[in-house]
Amino acid sequence: MSQGHAGGSSSARPPRFGVRLAGTGTCIPRTKVTNADLEKVMETTDEWITQRTGIKSRYIYKKELGETTAHFAIGAARAALADAGMTGADIDLVVVATMTTDAPTPSTSCIVSHAIGTHAAGGLDINGACSGFVYSLNVVHDMIKGGAYRNILLIGADRITQHVEFSTWGRGTSVLFGDGAGAIVVRATDDPSKGLLAQAMHCDGGGAKHLFIPASKEDFPNPADYEERKLNRVYMNGGAVFKFAVGTFSTLIEQTLEKAGLKAEDVDHYVCHQSNARILAAARERFGLPAEKLHVNIDHFGNTVAASIPLAFDEIRKAGRVHEGQKVMFLAFGAGLTWGSSLWQL
Ligand code: COA
């Protein structure tokens, strides 16, 4: 058999390899804010928040503590590298899913790449709002599978509470969110069975104005809605987003299972974006999933945008519930409107 050689007509085919999730880590703000704390600064109650959302507390950044999006991203990156037994020098590319970079430029990934001491590894920010981590996971997988990269550090980091107001005026959104970051080291492996079994990425800009952050008066679809204090604050049509989320979650799970030729019970963990405990419960009931297969941690983190999925995955991993050979479906929806899934064979 011909052995490919330089200048020859035959070439060696790249060896078949898979992709694996090698280490996880998180970084959250130092300040925990309970529903009782919120009762002191706005007209709300623990009962209202708990019944509508399942949230009991969240972690909120403090500017004076230096808690920027990059700060959280770097903390999560370092923790994930330590968990994987690697250093920054091993990383080929840093990808940060975020919609709250600290400045339009440089990107958060450039700051992380420098802070963890990569050898000038590339840096890429991806904005898919709450779907950003799932979008990025699919992109990162295929970049490794394509053969150009071996070790990618993927981080979901957001400091969304800079865009809400902790007052009675802002209570419709401020009680929902929290800040933080989670990271996963994604690596090439010689085992070709590991990696993505199915994926999906969707968006519908027709629903953009159901959930967005207005930057100017012209951003308001209805000029009568404009008020200066609404600028740079999350604007949400809660009922419309709720309806979109419940429908999307079920369809997304069904379509992703179908692509992979699997049944709902074949998947060991559903790691979902944490936006509302009622939305997660509806998905769990629809597919008859036991509670331990669909992890809910919104009670202590709130909705942390792109950080919510890696925060949840790290929690179940560190609890010893994730094992090689299992199947895990990551699922998210968010502003854009966006939605996506990533079904892995670990
Ligand atoms: N505390 C007390 N009352 C509040 C409140 C708060 N924090 N926020 C709003 N209210 C009031 C409203 O002013 C309204 O009062 P009114 O009837 O006197 O006008 C009342 O509670 C009901 O508000 P409503 O918006 O109808 O509540 P809801 O049952 O639809 O729940 C959400 C609101 C936001 C919890 C719900 O719509 C939701 O979860 N939507 C999806 C949000 C989401 O997932 N976003 C992120 C996507 S990534």
Explain how this protein is built.
By secondary structure, the protein is α/β, with parallel strands linked by helices. The protein has two domains: 18-189, 3-Layer(aba) Sandwich (Peroxisomal Thiolase, Chain A, domain 1), CATH 3.40.47; 195-345, Thiolase/Chalcone synthase (Peroxisomal Thiolase, Chain A, domain 1, 3-Layer(aba) Sandwich). The protein is built from ten helices and 13 strands. The strands form four sheets. The chain has a five-stranded mixed beta sheet with strand order 1-7-6-4-5, with helices on both faces. A four-stranded mixed beta sheet has the order 8-13-12-11, sandwiched between helices. Strands 2-3 form a two-stranded antiparallel ribbon. The protein is globular and about 60 Å long. Bound molecules: coenzyme A (COA). Coenzyme A is lined by residues 44, 48-49, 52-53, 130, 171-172, 175, 211, 238-239, 241-242, 245, 275-276, 303, 334.
- Structural class, please? alpha/beta
Total beta strands: 13
Apparent shape: globular
Q: What is the alpha-carbon Rg in Å?
A: 21 Å
What oligomeric state do the depicted chains represent?
single chain
Give a short account of the largest sheet: 5 strands, mixed
First and last CA, distance: 35 Å
**Small-molecule binders:** coenzyme A
The top level CATH class name of the largest domain: Alpha Beta
> Which fold name is given in CATH as the topology of the largest domain?
Peroxisomal Thiolase, Chain A, domain 1
Which architecture of the largest domain per CATH? 3-Layer(aba) Sandwich
Strand order of the largest sheet: 1-7-6-4-5
pLDDT averaged over residues? 94
How many DSSP H or I helices?
10
